[in-house]
Amino acid sequence: MTGGAQRRAAAGRRPVELEVALWRAVAVYRVLALAYAAALIAKNSGGYARPLGGWAVLAVMAAWTAWATFAFADPRRRGRPLLAADLAVAMGCLLATAWVESPEGIAAGRPTLPVSWVAAAVLSWAVRGGKRLGLTAAAVLGVGDLLIHVLAGTAGGLEDRTFNGIVLLLMAGLVVGHVVKLARDAEARLARAVELEAATRERERLARRIHDSVLQVLAMVKRRGGELGGEAAELGRLAGEQEAALRALIGASPSAAGTGRPDEEPGRRDEQTDLRPLLTAHSAATVTVSTPATPVPLDAHAAHEIEAAVAAALDNVRRHGGDGVRAWVLVEDGDDEVVVSVRDDGPGIPEGRLEQAAADGRLGVAQSIRGRVRDLGGTVAIVTAPGEGTEIEMTVPRAPDRRRRS
Amino acid sequence: MSDVPPPVPPGAFSDVPSEEGDGAPRPLRVMVVDDHPMWRDAVARDLAEAGHEVVATAGEGRTAVRVAAAARPDVAVVDLQLPDISGVEVTRHLAAADPPVRVLVLSASGEQQDVLEAVKAGATGYLLKSAAREEFLDAVRRTGAGDAVFTPGLAGLVLGEYRRLASAARRADDDAPRLTERETEVLRLVAKGLTYKQIAQRLVLSHRTVQNHVQNTLGKLQLHNRVELVRYAIEKGLDRDD
Questions:
Q1: pLDDT per residue over A183-194, tens digit each?
Q2: Under a CB-based contact definition with an 8 Å cutoff, are residues B175 and B185 in contact?
Q3: For the stretch A325-339, what's the b/e string if a residue is b when 16 or more beta carbons lie within 10 angstroms of its beta carbon?
Q4: CA–CA separation, A345 vs A385, rounded Å?
Q5: What is B154-235's CATH topology?
Q6: CA-to-CA dists, residue A354 to A305, A315, A374, angstroms
Q7: Which of A219, A263, A290 sits opposite B156 (nearest CB)?
Q8: Residue A177 burial (CB count, 10 A)
Q9: Which range is most confident: A226-240, A256-270, B7-21?
Q10: Under CATH, which architecture does the A272-406 domain have?
Q11: For residues B50-76, average pLDDT
Q12: Nearest-by-Cβ selection for B130 from A219, A294, A345
């Protein structure tokens, strides 16, 4: 339940945040541009054909700025009517230049009354509909810029500055529209990722419960089968094997490996491999793997070499110990070294056998384990006696720069 | 113990548990907490057949905590996966009860972090559900006698936890519970699958001493955990009544 709720919340909330931020930015721009326009009108009003008209246009712009800031903040009002009105007001204020400003002023290339304030409409359109709408609004206002000269009868003396203004408007529409699209896509991707993560977590939670139930049943079959004997005992043995295999699988899953040790430096994680899942994968009905509850990080090469050595040792136990011989693997995580021991309760190796094998040129399992561990800079101790099983203890140092807490 | 002369005055060996050697274990009052009816019944039946009294069963954690107060079991057999509150939480409640209930955790998946948390919360024993019937009954008996019941897996977890605490303490310049050399030695042998008897032989110790070492490792961990909880509560101002 909670997973679903989180997913909905995540999917529903995030885009709104981006949207709100963008509209706020447009509103801020609108106010700043209004202040700039007001300063220019105050400075130039002496030269206007109709100075009062200039102040009237400024009043309209101020009123619209106030209303637009309020209206665009409300998602329900951000429809086409508001966008159309925004552009219309911008256009009106722009064209009013032809009526307020003296023809000489226009011909001399003095700025339009709203100056850059009209770009707010382009931004609104771009934020709302991407680069296509942004360009459309910019084009409409560009036509307005040209119309001023037509209305004032100064079309003959078009200045570069007019064209520069139009190009800047088009660029604003294009760039803002494009960036908004990119940001929206990124946000949608993020929302999807969040959703996926929540779904995965939920699946893992369910899987844990299901695994637990399956393990329960298998363990039960093993237990009852053993008690009933006969054919049931065989079923029980099979169930026991599957139970151990499933438990090993769960222990080896990356999700199980990722938990724990919250105080671990996160930067080291990716170059390092947790040794535990590699070894717990070798659990079986006759093999018990004991590890710390927290990850045992080692560099990947060392971890895999240790795993290979343990696999060789376990294989040897199976081959020479016969059925029913059990083995225990213990992983100990020191600050400077990792110790892995493999012990079995088999018949053990008579004294001198290992040396004999080596002398005969037969590179037994002991040699291969020694070789691997020596290459990692570690040591191997083998303790064995007839009737007491065999214990192989591998000590592998962490590379000096990889020491966990130095 | 075979060389002890037959006439023993009663009470002379009062520190030696009476059930050792005489084959007639004291019947225990046991509570079974498991959400799988199948397991609840099977475990209850095994316990009853072995002569123990199953005083309560519960399929949910909160029920278990409530029922335990009335049923006053000696031992609670607790599954870690429960539908409402976790087995760790149940363990914490039961271990803190007066008189405390001894908790044997019986889990199917053996999620390591959960097992470790349960032990730190006060469980004194842990067993996988795949353990054989005799192994289980022996574990219940030992839990009832106040002994710690370790699997090799649990020994590995506890060893790892002491190492982690020591490292963390060294960095924070803080106190942490430490194992003595002997305790480490014993725990490592448990983790390598040796029985207490084999450990006693190898280290030339008595069975009881091995048992005590193992027990101490748990006791220190649980004590540290309680101290940490209290310290946390004081830091957060949870000890004040306002």
A1: 889 888 988 999
A2: no
A3: bbbbbbbbbbeeebb
A4: 11
A5: Arc Repressor Mutant, subunit A (1.10.10)
A6: 22, 17, 17
A7: A290
A8: 26
A9: A226-240
A10: 2-Layer Sandwich (3.30)
A11: 92
A12: A219
